[in-house]
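Dear H.,

Thanks for agreeing to be a second pair of eyes. The structure we're designing against is below in token form, covering all 283 positions.
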């Protein structure tokens, strides 16, 4: 399988691909407030590249439960200088974590290759056209509700089947609208309108998502369901995050969105040495 991202191609024939998280926000749940100036943010990005990240995901709006929305102008002010600085200093793949067409357009002009949209291109109707015109890679993430409301009462009859059908439907609809399916990746959206049990079921159900035939991205890093399961505070969730990463890769995930790049790359490298990931047997 391949993932086309603006003329470049991500292949999945080696260790699982690590996407390093760089939140240039004052309020993200884990690294909020640490990289609000472009200089330190770019330095942190380059450090993650040295540690082995293949992709950096730059976000200017927190999506933690209850987070307040941010204007496009403010998001652009936060992310564009960081993307431009990283594009000038490195050839790492750059992703922008946004739901807004205006932000994506400016981010792509600054050198981004991928649009990571937690609304799966549903929040802003203009984003589809931006992605299509630039041949950008797109991450389609499942979410129940909105960040402000999503953790109130998440409910599903069969979470794995419902998430898989939703993502399948988004891929089909976007392909019919003219987006190149080779540019699309899918993500179950751990923590986005899900209880602890829903998140665990989705990790166990990753093989179902892998059968959609598109790269599967998983973001479990430091999330609160790992805290609920272990009793660990957000800055003590390295081991739980690595356990979730190893399990995700074993279950068929291709791309892991993580805060702790160095340790995650070591785990991904070792899993590959042990024979994971493997191509699914031909059917
Ligand atoms: N999780 C977060 C943000 N963006 N994008 C994808 N595709 N998948 C995820 O699981 C995902 C995501 C939330 O984590 P974080 O960026 O660390 O925090 P915040 O949203 O508070 O900035």
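And this is the sequence the design step returned. I haven't edited it by hand at all.
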């Amino acid at each position: 399988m391949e993932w086309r991202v603006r003329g470049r191609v991500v292949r999945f024939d080696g260790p699982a691909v690590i996407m390093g998280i760089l939140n240039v926000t004052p309020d993200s749940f884990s690294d909020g407030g640490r990289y609000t100036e472009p200089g330190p943010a770019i330095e942190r990005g380059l450090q993650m590249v040295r540690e082995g990240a293949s992709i950096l995901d730059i976000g200017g709006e927190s999506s933690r439960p209850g987070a307040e929305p941010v204007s496009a102008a403010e998001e652009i002010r936060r992310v564009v200088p960081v993307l431009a600085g990283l594009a000038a200093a490195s050839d790492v793949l750059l992703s922008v974590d946004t739901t807004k067409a205006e932000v994506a357009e400016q981010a792509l002009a600054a050198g981004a290759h991928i649009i990571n949209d937690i609304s799966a291109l549903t929040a802003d109707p203009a984003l589809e056209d931006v992605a299509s015109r630039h041949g950008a890679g797109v991450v389609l993430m499942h979410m129940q509700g909105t960040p402000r409301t999503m953790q109130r009462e998440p409910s599903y009859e069969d979470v794995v089947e419902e998430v898989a059908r939703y993502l399948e439907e988004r891929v089909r609809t976007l392909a019919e609208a003219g987006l190149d399916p080779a540019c699309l990746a899918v993500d179950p959206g751990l923590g986005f309108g899900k209880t602890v049990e829903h998140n665990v079921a989705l990790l166990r159900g990753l093989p179902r998502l892998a059968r959609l035939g598109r790269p599967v991205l998983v973001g479990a890093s430091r999330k609160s369901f790992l805290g609920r399961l272990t009793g660990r505070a957000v800055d003590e969730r390295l081991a739980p995050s690595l356990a979730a990463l190893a399990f995700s890769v074993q279950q068929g995930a291709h791309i892991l969105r993580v805060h702790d790049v160095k340790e995650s790359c070591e785990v991904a490298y070792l899993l590959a040495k042990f024979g994971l990931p493997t191509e699914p047997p031909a059917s």
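Two observations from my side: Residues 21, 23, 25, 28-30, 59, 62-64, 97, 116, 118, 139, 141, 187, 189-190, 217, 219, 257 surround 6-hydroxymethylpterin-diphosphate (CB under 6 Å). The chain has a mean pLDDT of 95.

Warmly,
E.
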